[in-house]
């Protein structure tokens, strides 16, 4: 029965992809105490990439997982970049608006409350941008290996939204000061930020799952 229900979710999602603007996967939740998760993959991932992480981090939560619409050498991303670590900020603004619109449409289509974003790398960056540009779209965020997506974002009021940032001490892509600047930026905007630096590089690991799961567990209704 569980497998059949999950397949029904996927079929429904494919039919709704054009209307909602993103190819995506949706899995209905079984635990109403858990907020839904918006899963945002890294460069080269797709809508299936973070589903196992979402299921493990928040068992029973509804999962909404879009595929980034920007292609870089055939690899999906959520916005354009000009070079490694150099973002096309006009595209960041545009794509964050598209993502916020997708979230609003998906909430209406699937009967969801505001989701908590769980993003990795490029997905964490677009989640941070969405928080700053469209705070109404998200209830909070787990940002794994994020960078500052916008050098000078407009003033935002995040109203105490909780944010967990998980950085890597040996990350060759994200300088430590950049991650710290993002944490400070979100705090100034009114978010309640917890920033943890792990003894790892840029990739996902068991420690990320353990910390994300404990953080999400503490935020059950």
UniProtKB/TrEMBL annotation:
Keywords on this record? Hydrolase
- One Pfam family cited in the UniProt record for this chain: Abhydrolase_2
Q: Where is the Phospholipase/carboxylesterase/thioesterase domain?
A: 27-213
Which InterPro entries does the protein's record reference? AB_hydrolase_fold (IPR029058), LYPA1-2/EST-like (IPR050565), PLipase/COase/thioEstase (IPR003140)
Q: Name one GO molecular function term.
A: hydrolase activity
The family database entries (Gene3D superfamilies) matched by this protein are listed as:
alpha/beta hydrolase
Report the coiled-coil segments: none
The similarity comment for this entry is: Belongs to the AB hydrolase superfamily. AB hydrolase 2 family.
Query: What protein name does the entry list?
Result: Hydrolase
Give the species: Methylobacterium oxalidis
Organism classification: Bacteria, Pseudomonadati, Pseudomonadota, Alphaproteobacteria, Hyphomicrobiales
